[in-house]
Amino acid sequence: MNELPWIEIISAVVVLAGGGGLAGVLVARRRRRTEDQGDASSTAGTTTAPSATAERETAEPATAEPDTAGPATAEPAATAAPVLERPAPTAGRLVRLRDRLARSGSPLGARLLSVLSRDSLTEDDWDEIEEELLLADVGAGPTTELLDALRTRVRVLGVREPAAVRDLLRAELVALLQPELDRTLHTDPRTAEDGTHLPAVTLVVGVNGTGKTTTVGKLARVLVADGRSVVLGAADTFRAAAADQLTTWGNRVGVPTVRSDREGADPASVAFEAVARGRDEKTDVVLVDTAGRLQNKAGLMDELGKIVRVASKVAAPSEVLLVLDATTGQNGLSQARVFAEVAGVTGIVLTKLDGTAKGGIVVQVQRELGVPVKLIGLGEGPDDLAPFDVEEFVDGILG
Ligand SMILES: Nc1nc2c(ncn2[C@@H]2O[C@H](COP(=O)(O)OP(=O)(O)OP(=O)(O)O)[C@@H](O)[C@H]2O)c(=O)[nH]1
């Protein structure tokens, strides 16, 4: 499978900006999908909306079978906004990332630096550093490692100059964040053996309120800026407003949204519809938003497994992005473990990093699961999503 390095996104945006391409273009077409679903739909039966709703309220185990997902209820987006927005260039986002992190009250890096720069470091100073790291959710193991490395290097090198201390801390923090991990997003469509176009499918999962819908909307903008065709799938059928929210995101950049006309409809059905539409219309990427679910509710996690299986009848997801709220810290780790097991998470999106010093969870999630943080959310604005770049991130928290 091909990869989409962020540099390509940046280049494409520069090209688009240079050509003055997208602004003012009218959306003339919103196709209502009426054609038969072919092979895949033959496996589908009726939708299972009532059980999905009951499940969420009572957290009972799911009873629906994978083959009961009916695709019939999904519909394209409502009327599009007439004027398309042009998403902000990705390049500018990295700069903003650093600003936001540096402005987030008292960044971890700045606090560490202030302790490390003291004339002679006492045991109390080292305890303070340890406490800062633990408070930032870096985790016990990585904290001990970092402390040991810092102690050794400070002692051996006798570093005291602020600039040298900064360099030393920077190098240790970068190493902790595993810069060697592959953070590219897999968003290239492929062709099946029989010649069928298969869109790249990205499934976005996570617990309630972490920023899934917002992330799907922001990611659509990034892809559009790169000149990609996108279809959104509103598989959060539990919260009606989520589908409206997603449709609005899509309309702003001329991307159609496949959604159900019934609240509580089977989310697997909607996911199937969206991927099938991407296949039929030869779309590059299908982004599927899912409802928030708690990782300890077996029924909801079963439902997620079903979404993956049913969507895979058309095209298996090439990315399953787990959205974690940075402000919830440690809890993100147990979420990540269960989601990784059920849905095969390929990347983490860490949201709400603006204004929190708890980003240390990045370290633990990557270490324990071997899953890289690929994107970070830095605010509620439409272009406040940036690729996670280890060095930029560390420079941001060092202020
Ligand atoms: N400050 C900040 N807020 C964010 C960020 N990402 C998302 N949010 C906000 O978080 C709130 C929840 O976002 P949603 O996208 O609706 O969350 P969700 O995960 O789809 O929610 P459910 O569907 O209820 O599970 C919204 O108010 C977003 O604007 C971020 O990076 N920074």
TrEMBL record:
Membrane topology reported for the UniProt record: Peripheral membrane protein
Domain SRP54-type proteins GTP-binding: 372-385
Region (Disordered): 33-86
Domain of life of the organism encoding this protein: Bacteria
Name of the featured protein: Signal recognition particle receptor FtsY
Compartments in which it is found: Cell membrane; Cytoplasm
Gene: ftsY
Biased composition (Low complexity): 40-53, 60-82
EC number: 3.6.5.4
PROSITE patterns: SRP54
